Amino acid sequence: MEFSRYKPTFVSGKFKLKFKSAWQAVLLHKPIELPEEYTEALTEIEAKLTDKQIKQAHSYLRRITYRYHYRARKSGKLGSSMMCDLNWAFEGNTFSFSSDMPRKQFSVEMTSPWSYPRTGDITVVLDRIKQRLEVHKLISSKCYSNDSKKAIGIDKGLATLLSCNSCNEYGKNFSKLANAIVDKYGKRNANRQPYMSLRWQLNQQLEQLEKANQPLSKTALRKKIKLLGKLKNLEQNNIGRKSYDKSYRSAQETVRSFINHAINRMIETEHPAVIAKEDLTFVKEKGVKSDNSRFARKMRKRLNSWTKGQLDERIVYLSSKNSIETHDVNPAYTSQYCPICGQHFEERYGSHHELTKCKKCGKMNANIAAAKNILSRLTDEEITLYTPYKRVKEILVSRIKEA
Fold this sequence. Notes:
Helix content is 44%, strand content 16%. It is an alpha+beta fold. Among the domains are: 3-68, no CATH class; 81-136, no CATH class; 191-238. It has a 5-stranded mixed β-sheet with strand order 9-8-7-10-11, with helices on both faces. Strands 1-5-6 form a 3-stranded antiparallel β-sheet, with no helix packed on it. A 3-stranded antiparallel β-sheet has the order 2-3-4, with no helix packed on it. A hairpin with a 6-residue loop joins β3 and β4 (105-109). α5 runs antiparallel to α6, α5 runs antiparallel to α7 (242-270) and α5 (174-211) packs across α8. The protein starts with 8 loop residues before the first helix and ends with a helix.
């Protein structure tokens, strides 16, 4: 039989394929044999249709097949996996892990014996296709050899992501990427704010209606239905989270990719064995003050968006992956004193305040100078990681006097 004999059935509405095997054969351009009661109907329909209608029927069949067929979801979108750290245990062949219920655990029977160490982190994955739970644990990972004996110091920044003591910089123009994302979502949140305020007002009105313990009158009931309708309309059309979250995740992945690329380039170019980096865990970044001695709002947003924790985590991970040691040093005043003579810098200038000037040594890049100071503090016995910043300044001033 010809393929065209089955497609018209979707156009006429008088006949339809009721068998999965027949549908599959039509999509694969294969001939099939149908029961005799359908033969006359097919012949009658085929005689009334043109080639254009047959082509349209074929297109329609393809569309509805693609639209309604099952698709596997990406991991994480439907909560298909979760991490377990210390809240899991084995009892015989029964695996138990924490749940979202207080003082309760999930317990499942393993289909195969667990012969691996019962310590560390594991991942519980829900396989929706095979309809089963899987327990994943990292047993071993590839370790790269490193025969280098070089130690470097790096300064972390916003305009330029990484500056090394070797005068090389990596991740330039990072601030343009980060600032564009901050400004975009700041504007988007500002546009959503009136709708958020309106939702709060509607919820307040609903609470007032429900506070009365008496049955609602017809007027109050109509008002409640109207308020619920407005809330539903707001959630669907103005302050929904699906599009916003998807766009924001994409922007964060762009930033993450930029950070990874800069760190990998630094490791490949410098080829270090030890990396000294400043510990910015307890450092509060200050913004540019305005005329009324308040932090500029836009600058404060941009500085807060600089994910120092994410940058530090990627440096540690990618360094350990390449068998590189990482050490934190005290960050106090690393960019304010000359690494050559120890004098205090006179001024900072440039588009991102990256340039500075020393009385004795002249002009230099402040970020590169900070990286050199960070490397020297790796072996500094007086200035340790936990030395108070006031004490650090006293030590630096005394060294200038002694020189």
